[in-house]
Amino acid sequence: MSGAGIRIEGLRKRYGSGDTAVDALKQVDMSVAPGEVVGLIGPSGSGKSTLLKCLGAVIEPTAGRMMLGEHTIYDDGWRVRDLRALRRDRIGFVFQAPYLIPFLDVTDNVALPPMLAGVPNAEARRRALGLLDALEVRHRAAAMPAQLSGGEQQRVAIARGLVNRPPVILADEPTAPLDSARALAVIRILNEMARRYRTAVIVVTHDEKIIPTFARIYHIRDGVTQEERGEGRSIG
Amino acid sequence: MNFPRIAPRAVVLVAALLTLLVLFGYVALRSGPLAPVPVTITTVESRAITPALFGVGTVEARRVHRIGPTAPGRIAELAVDVGERVRAGQTLGAMDAVDLEARIAAQDAALLRAAAIEREAVARHDYARSQLQRYERLFVQRSVSEEVLTAKRQEMAIADAARAAARGEVARVRADGEALRAQRANLRLLSPVDGLVVVRSADSGTTLVAGQVVFEIIDTASVWIDVRFDQSGAAGLAPGLPARIVLRSSGADRIAGRVLRVEPVADAVTEELLAKIVFDAPPPRLPALGELAEVTVELGPLPEAPVVPNAALRRGADGPGVWRLGETGVEFVRVTPGRGDLDGLLQVESGVQPGDRIVVHSARALGARSRLRVVDEIARSAR
Amino acid sequence: MISLAARDIVHGWGKFVFTGVGLGLLIGVTLIMAGVYRGMVDDGKALLDNSGADLWVVQQDTLGPYAEPSSVRDDTWRRLRTTPGVARAANVTYLTMQLATSAGEVRAMVVGVPPGEIVAPGWPPFLVAGRHITRSHYEAVADLASGARLGDVLKIRRHRYTVVGLTRRMVSASGDPMVFIPLRDAQEAQFLKDNDAVRETRRRNAADPAFDRPGVPGLLAAIDEAQGANPWVNAVLVTLQPGASATDVAQAIRRWTRLTVYTRGSMEAILVGKLIATSARQIGMFLVILGVVSATIVAFIIYTLTMDKLREIAVLKLIGTRNRTIAAMILQQAIALGLIGLVTGRIAATWAAPAFPKYVLLVPQDTLAALCIVIAICVLASLVAIRIALAVDPAEAIGG
Q: Is this complex scored with an ipTM above 0.90?
């Protein structure tokens, strides 16, 4: 499950209607190739979160087009019926705070998305352990989230985002609570995973530490995206 | 792959839930209708029992002598008091004679007067007779007329009647005098028997009507117990049977006695038989009359028969029976209860055999499908 | 798929179990309440069962002998005994009084039974210790609940009675333990109050010029004697010959005597329907209140548990958990809480029941009913929490 990428054309989002209407997104055009990690940078109120929610299929855009690989998922209206399954199977989420489920251990936290998709428990856990291995937290597989350090939690969260092999991962300020070294480690992992699983990764951030690592950056200001070349500094 | 990853707290939780469930199961099975019924059992034996009859009676005296004056009067003095023993003929007291002596004197005077009248009548009679004899002779000599002789005869008859009347009057007046004298003799209250004064109902100075009781005297040797027995189970009660008497006042002391007689008339209202029980030996201290006495009469041993405790007897749908332990469970066996003794043993005439094991006590009413738990004693916790 | 509810319970088991046990105590109180009602009904039925009678013959137009006072001449039984269809007729007296036993004072119902026939109606149907009454006076069979033991001496009015046997669950309709004594003693006990009262009556009689006439010696004694006798009993218990119809025999007795007759069914209607109806309604109110309180507590607990997890629920939704799964998680937790509560409650109720002064009867039907009600309450209570959980916007998981 790889190699799709994400493309967004002319996406707009308007909150409210009439005189009080606010255009959060006016003109968003993005394109991320499989295996690529791009940064999405913008000041507060620029529309970052709205864009992320639209991408994450939790709010509905007003107009435009979104494509995951060859599939058009939005074209002036949702083109998929089950947004929940879309989120579950085709989009991975990594959050600012890890938001692990506190009552599940690390393995089951990671194994939950495939289980929700109907994968047998053993198979789901096998996949989870594989990913935990890849993310070097295998040794904490039986621990509860509260017993992990912040970096470990974030890696587990990344594993959870990846476990269903989604074509796209949305990372919302994944490094905010971390110090520089750990933040860079997370970005390195995201890059590695993007390459390994051919996943398109969008990292929403305003973390100065990591901005230089992106080869390509989208700036968003007042609901309009603008593509820039990044430094593409290598990590590590 | 390292699966079952069971956290220790999960183990604790499962253990706690299991404990809870086991407790729940125990509670469900050990209380309520599913629990086995605790019972005590016994073995039927063949033996003789001695039925006995228990009754309550009062101490009474067989003979009570009530002493009082025969004529109205006032009590002059009383010589004895309640609780004193008296002998036959002993003077208990005297009534005040009041005007009796004067009336006797008047009677004596009346007698003298009657005698004088009699003497006068005799004199008249003697004179009339001599006159009559003289005129009869003169009539024979034809010296008086027949008319005169007839008059003399009439005088003679009148004098005769007057003499008889005077004699009668003397007898009457004498008798009256004797009556008054007899009354004077009766002013003394005498004891007819050797006995004990139990009641003194008047004191000196009290005026009494004729026949009013002043003293009650009992014969202490004649004290007995008037006892009532419930009619049911009283068959066999007969004179001569030994009895054990417990007087209320003397607690557990048993006094030997025997049935003197069973009254031929029973009390139809209270459904009781009446009997009189006497002491074998007079009790050292005379019990108070009216004191309650519990009397147990042994009716004589019955021949051997299967015996069960009366607690084993249960009501069945169509008659009494007992629960017998069979090979598979308990079964209700109809029995015909016979007579029992006071200790709760009951002979049964049919239904069970010696050696049968039967249920005596049970914590609940039994049914054919009851599960039993045999215990020595059904504990108080069986509440 | 793993059970999210179970995992959550295992994770927060302390909170969960203690909440469950707390709820259990509440359910235990509810079950005890129901048990008290069952116990009252059972007391009434035990009274009827234990009396062993098919018909109760009482004073005309009374609800006697349990619900109202009733007096019947003590020779009435002879007439009844000859009624066709009657197997046995036995006098019985009931007198509720305060009784001093070795265990202290108890309220007891003194029952007078005719001596002699052990299986006659009115006699205790079974004993747990000792023997039946054999003497026609001064012996007693007492219920365990009175606290009496074998060999104890009970003072009832003017006489002392030796306890020769013990019964269990022989209670009056109001749950007071019974004490059986011979009928004649009981009649006397009912009438002769105590020595002081007897003396007082005699004094009054002596002061009454109509009774104490100088010219009629013995009149006063005769009146005292007559006043000391009691030819009344409270009821006649009748058992029928096999095959005889209770209603027919009752009809025959009603027709030829000036008495009221109750069958087992009508007696039960009096005891359950009239004597304990108000108490039953009272307990019913308590049950409703306890049910509402339990429901509120379950709803509150589930609500709190859910509110604590709103962030997790948002994440779950974001990663594609179905609403059904989330609702099931909350519902399962609610039901699990209810079940823990029920089991704890049942155990607590069983342990607590003997400590209650009155009989508490826990019947499996009540436990089953409680199970259904608890589950229903848990489902209802979790609805609020489920509504809130389903309203959670998965977008909340994505910051800003």
A: no
